[in-house]
Amino acid sequence: MKKKSIFGRELSLLGFIIFLSVLVGIRNPEFLTIKNLLDIFNDTAILLICAIGMLLVIVTGGIDLSIGATLGLSGMVCALTVRDYPQLPIVIIILIGIGVGLCVGTINGILVAKCKVLPIMATLGMMNICRALIYFVSGGKWVNTYELTSAFINFSSSTFCGISVLILSAVIIYIVFGFFINYNKVGRKIYAVGSNDSAAKVSGIKVDNIIFLVYALLGTVGGLAGMLWTSRYAFASFETGSGFEMSVIAACVLGGVSVTGGSGKISGVLLGALLIGIINTALPMIQVSSFVKDTIEGCIILIAIVANTFMMRWTRQKALRQREI
After folding, report:
1. Is this model's pTM higher than 0.70 or not?
2. Where in the cell is it found (predicted)?
3. Is residue 6 in a domain?
4. What is the CATH number of the domain that holds 63?
5. Does residue 1 have a pLDDT over 70?
6. Phi, psi dihedral angles at 230 (to 5 degrees)
7. Which residues, 6+ apart, have CB-to-CB distance to 281 below 8 Å?
């Protein structure tokens, strides 16, 4: 029954995405052009990469408010490295970006899992630390397009078998994490911790290690996303990734991930990220200001949380009634 309700919710979300796309396309025909759709997919790829990592954190009952700052710090470090050492191969830059994200995720994991700091407090503090580090390493200055190498700038838009590196990266991470979540023993333990951490401990699961792992994984993909972001937009600044955490969380919540932990599917996160990407592209095309866009995004999160809460309550009540029968 639970699988049917989840499938129905994802089907409804897909239907809404199609409906919204057609509606915006009627208002502005340029929205449904191949070029614009490819731009949406490329922008959504970065969001999806981070949202997949956030899925694991939220499933355990946690949250990470530092993902936007992690992306920004990784992007700035990559940009500065490219500027100062233009001869370095792109693989090294990718590893540097991932390494920065992994460091941030590791610290978050230690604070939450080992030091027992509340996730919202630990990651809020880390968000501010990352922003301070961005300002410190950059001296408060931008890294502009002309300071970056053409190889770095063109990396995200380069293609392999006709697929852009951005989309290909998101697809690979989706497949790897999908296998990890659905077919790996550790993936099942993540859901067990989120459902009932006390029962998970009794069953022999090392809860602290699982919690540490999910924050480290989110930091890792956030670091990769930061490198890809900077390559795509060809600049880095103090504000890079600011507010991005809201879009990441919104993608998860819209995709049916329960903020109380224990449930959520990667396929739902894909649809949630796609909807956020469409909204971010569609609203400016119909002359909606960024302030209104942020308000709409906040309302979407609240509505999705309320709807998800009622859905879970209805599912539990229906299950109880069936047991009584």
Report:
1. yes
2. Cell membrane
3. no
4. 1.10.3470
5. no
6. -65, -35
7. 31, 36, 39, 40, 43
